[in-house]
Amino acid sequence: MEEKKLIVYMHAGSGNHGCEAIVNSLCRMIKEKVTLVSYFGEEDKRYSLKDLCEIKSERRFENHKAAHVLYYGYRKLTGDGESFIRYRYGDVFKGEAVPLAISIGGDNYCYENMLGDLRLANSAFNKKGTKTVLLGCSIEPALLKRKEIAEDLGKYHTIIARESITYEALREAFGRRDGDGPEILCFPDPAFTLSAKELPLPEGFAAGNTVGINVSPMIQDNEKISGITMENYKEMISYIIRNTDMQIALIPHVVWERNDDRKPVHALYEAFAETGRVIQIGDGNCQELKGFIGRCRFFVGARTHATIAAYSTGVPTLVAGYSVKARGIARDLFGTEENYVLPVQNLKKKDDLTKGFQWLFSHEKEIREKLGEVMPGYKERALETGKEVDRLWEEFSRRQKI
Predict the structure, then answer these.
(1) Spatial CA neighbour of 202 closest among 250, 162, 157
(2) Which tens digits make up the pLDDT trace of 316-359?
């Protein structure tokens, strides 16, 4: 009999080291070996996932134009939208249904261009008889008011929110499970449990006296005033150089050509290179980048999983955020997002980020103490995700054998 596989899907590739961190952590906390369906499987093999799971690259239509024309025509004639997913996922849909498929949640539901594929994949697995789980997700509460989104989410067997804002919104939308809706749980992001790998520090990185900084094109896209994000980062770096003896490490966390942190990071480096106080960290896997972030004194970051790397290693952190995920995680850790998250949409003056850093600096001791107090228990709760996946896998695998 063919061996059943635990499928993880909607993974965009490890060039986004946050995506990599979720899968890396999940694979280490569950018993079953994962088959990862990845949009960029070659990326996953270059970084940390190659020995943790079986990696299956999606078949991409841009590489098979004839197939795209064929499937487009078929879909037009039949209305079978899931045919695109079945083609992309290949032999995952061949033969008997797999018992369980996990949609890597993260903030996938925060992006309009992903909602269609999320719905189609969830529907395709359900029609095949596979139970689905949406794992480690953040969802804007307003999105749940859209009928097609609520119907899609209602098809998951279990939804695991990674912060309380999403959890409460899901509970309000679906209530307690009555046999029809999904079971709603809340556990911290699996990446809080990610282990760090400490590579040798580059020249100019002072362990324990360096401010780690991450900036992304994504927050620039969400700014209300053109150019205000980079203006704020430059003003903050100038302030740190003028008023402290701390070094500055610019750390990218997503390196996709279409969405590459290294571009704004390099622009900041060039603006301050002559000071001798600023260095660039190159690309690395999620564990290596966490090793650099964890040796910072402070961290100011845009990418969620860069800030998770900082939080989980006890580094006082200011998040330049733009969505529910940043607010929810900070609220769960500190009881409030105020002073811990600065929405990029709220940047109006060039010193807004500097003022946020000044508050962080002046409260360093109490923030370190708070993180030291809450983080052990927080990481323990993050491990509950693995226990839940193990439980569901055992239950649905057993049912298929009966």
Answers:
(1) 250
(2) 999 998 789 999 999 999 999 999 999 888 899 999 999 999 99
Structure tokens at 42: 């070659």
pLDDT digits (tens, 9 = 90+) for 244-278: 999 999 999 999 998 999 999 999 999 999 999 99
CA 304 to CA 257: how far, in whole Å? 19
Q: Mark out the alpha helices in 175-316 (DSSP H runs).
A: 217-222, 228-243, 262-272, 286-293, 304-312
- Count of beta carbons in the 10 Å neighbourhood of residue 355: 16
Helices and strands (H, E) in the chain, number of each type: 16, 14
pLDDT at 51: 94
* Structure-block tokens of residue 222: 């969400």
Residue type, 280: Q
HEC letters along 168-186:
HHHHHHHCCCCCCCCEEEE
Which pTM does this prediction carry?
A: 0.94
- Of 95, 98, 150, 160, which is closest to residue 125 (Cα–Cα)? 98
Distances (CA, A) of 199 to 20, 281, 287, 305: 18, 11, 10, 19
% of the chain residues with pLDDT over 70? 93
